[in-house]
Amino acid sequence: MLKKSFAILGLCLVSGLSLASNLTVYSVGPNNLITVLAQDYQAATGVRVQIFQGTTGQVMSRLEAEQRNPIADVVISASWDSAVDLKQQDLLAPLRLRNMTHVPDSLKDSHYIAQGVSALSMVFNTKSGLPQPEDWFDVTAGVYRNQVTMPDPAQSGTAFELLSALLTAKGDDATWDFLATMKQNRMIVPGPNARALNPVLQGAKSVVFGAVDYIALGHQARGESIEVIFPPSGTVIAPRPMMVLASSRNQDRAMDFVDFVLSEAGQARVAEVYLMSARTDIKSLRPGINDLNIINIDENLTQQRQVLINRFRAIMD
Fold first, then answer.
1. To the nearest 5 percent, what fractions of the chain are helix, strand and coil?
2. What is the β-pairing status of strands 207-212 and 148-149?
3. What is the pLDDT of residues 47-60, one digit of tens each?
4. Strand stretches in 126-219, DSSP E
């Protein structure tokens, strides 16, 4: 049986509860979002939220390492597949949420629900002096030689989803031929999302192929000379699932925290960092799902992850 320790904080008169206990949340970025949500929740309830923050891979590795003595109550990932996997292992509690009805069916399951949604884009440095690409395959042109970066699908779940989407929409031959052309055009694959974006922000490269949009939109809002491009031929959305672990001995609080994130106030915080709200009634600061041409990925491709990554590496290495 998984063990979970918690500390009693003292008298709390909020929400009709007399005692407030700590809550532990494991979350992916953006860096300030979970911190602000935790502060807001503590202000509303008196419950102190302890946070571990990392990439999806780091969060999942920590959960695996702590299986015999689980610590987390709530997990927020950037990969929908990670939630599917945890549910299949019977590690998640069924959700009991007041605000679940405000979230469309495509962004929720009985055991997990989207905190917010990002999409994949191209990011173009407007000071590069190059023509701005409009669609994915535009960057095969010779003018973009040695000017394009791409996140590594082995280190970025969203980059793998983009690869899967291109295979779904364009087919095997066109997708692998495109990547071979980009290799010849000296596209670099430096690592996870930030390593692909930074050279374009710094002006060393001109285009990111497959950037996580909310990160780039935040930089753009802060005055960076970039354009965030959603190709008209289609892109991928990446819902960010929230889950309550079945091992949590603080499930009522954990459910309440997830419900708070889905409240109007919580979703306004999500929108502040340029994610799409999980709720249809909360206005986002960026293009929403209905503004994008979404590619529905062939589910069979997600089960071939390592095969596809190996083929990608064989081309790009």
1. 45, 20, 40
2. parallel
3. 999 999 988 888 99
4. 148-149, 207-212
